[in-house]
Amino acid sequence: MHALDHLPVPGFIILENYDVVRMSETAKATFGKEVANLLDVIDHGSRAKLSRFLCATMSGIKVELNFCMPEGIGLFDVYHRWRPSEDGNTVGFIACVPRQSDLDEVLHSVARLEQRLVCGESVQKPAELRDDLWQHVDQSIRTVEELLGMLQGDIIEIGKGVYAELIMKELDSLRALIHEHAQAAL
Fold first, then answer.
1. Is 23 left (phi over 0), alpha (psi -120 to 50) or beta?
2. Do 90 and 76 meet the contact criterion of CB atoms below 8 Å apart?
3. Is the pLDDT of residue 120 over 80?
4. Could you tell me if residue 106 is inside a domain?
5. Mean pLDDT calculated for residue range 93-112
6. Longest Cα pair distance anywhere in the chain, in angstroms?
7. How many folded domains does the chain comprise?
8. DSSP string of 49-63?
9. Listed residue (30, 17, 21, 106) closest to 67, CA to CA
10. Residue 131 has pLDDT above 80, yes or no
């Protein structure tokens, strides 16, 4: 039994061209087959990422990759270390830690959104959340007006009172626009 077979997660020993020198029994069971090249079990969407990060110069960096499995796509954190072998090649030691629960959560969220769209529901937030948002924006405008009111005397004193008036008019215009939009949403 090879030391690789003692890993509780799928493991590989690979060459720099991703040819598999050895794979663990856990890897064979997880991916459902003996693999000649790591690319044979990497999802097409993850191949560019694999070639950028799974190399000797990036040794030790965790990479998140999608693998093809018999039951579908599986998300894995891939840990790798590289070293020269006796025959002059550089070999990589790869451990693949499943993150299926994260992928399941994403797939479940997508399925829920698809179901809502199929049923004709809006993906927007409920009306009560929109109402809270409008109230918050309105309160923020009031706060800016109050702060500007406190500074208005100093602003007029330095000869910039016209700018304070412009700011107040813009805030009034913004408040009117918000109230109009809030009424239309009801």
1. beta
2. no
3. no
4. no
5. 74
6. 87
7. 2
8. HHHHHSSGGGTT--E
9. 30
10. no
